[in-house]
Predict the structure.
Amino acid sequence: MNEDAIILELRSAAKRLSAVEIATLAGKLTGASLTQASMITTFKQAFPDIPLRTLLDAGAWAAWAGT
């Protein structure tokens, strides 16, 4: 699945899924583990209206999880 298709799928999923479920879906669609950097990058591309500071704060789970 290419990047544009992933972004479209995530935007569509936003109407029915929570942010955590969208993050899980992003990992499945990209076929990669969801790191802090990949989550921020993917969400910023799919949802450009979300402020970067919010994405950075949301991505802090990686530091707590030891990843």
